[in-house]
Write a structure and sequence with these properties.
The chain is mainly alpha-helical. The chain has helices spanning 11-32, 36-59, 63-79, 83-94, 100-119. The chain has one domain: Serine Threonine Protein Phosphatase 5, Tetratricopeptide repeat (Alpha Horseshoe), CATH 1.25.40. It starts with 10 loop residues before the first helix and ends in a 9-residue tail after the last helix.
Length: 128
C-alpha cells in the first residue's frame, strides 16, 4: 500500500532516472569486463545523477527511496576512486530512514570506505 504522503514521480525525475540508468548500465558493463579505468568517468557521472535524484525523491515524500539513491551514489563514487565523497553520502544515507538490515550493510560499507580514505594519499586542495 503506497504511503499517502508520497507524490508520484515528476517527468523530470523520470527522465533523470532513465538517463542515470543508461549510464550506470554502461559503467557496470565496462567494470565487469575489467575496463575499470574506462568505467571510472561513467561511475562519477552516475553518482552525480544519483546525488541529484535523492533530494528530488525527498521532496516528493519518498525519503526511503532518496536514501537508497544516496547509497547508490556512494557506491558509484567508491568505484570511481573517490572514497571521501562516498563516506559523506553513506553518512547522509544513515541519517535518514533505512530498514535495519540495510542500515547494517551501509555501516559496513562506510567502515570499509573509511579504511580506504586512510590509505589514499590526499590530493592537493586548492586554497581559497
Amino acid at each position: 500500500m503506497p504511503n499517502p504522503k508520497t507524490e508520484p514521480y515528476t517527468k523530470t525525475l523520470k527522465k533523470t532516472m532513465h538517463r542515470k540508468s543508461e549510464i550506470l548500465s554502461k559503467a557496470q558493463a565496462l567494470w565487469e569486463v575489467g575496463m575499470t579505468e574506462t568505467a571510472q568517468p561513467l561511475w562519477r557521472t552516475a553518482a552525480n545523477y544519483e546525488e541529484h535524484i535523492a533530494p528530488m525523491l525527498d521532496a516528493l515524500g519518498r525519503e526511503l527511496e532518496g536514501a537508497i539513491h544516496r547509497i547508490s551514489a556512494a557506491s558509484c563514487y567508491e568505484k570511481a576512486g573517490d572514497p571521501s565523497r562516498a563516506v559523506n553520502l553513506y553518512r547522509a544515507a544513515l541519517s535518514g530512514p533505512l530498514r535495519e538490515d540495510t542500515r547494517t550493510e551501509v555501516e559496513n560499507m562506510l567502515h570499509a570506505c573509511l579504511i580506504a580514505v586512510k590509505r589514499k594519499p590526499v590530493k592537493s586542495i586548492p586554497s581559497a
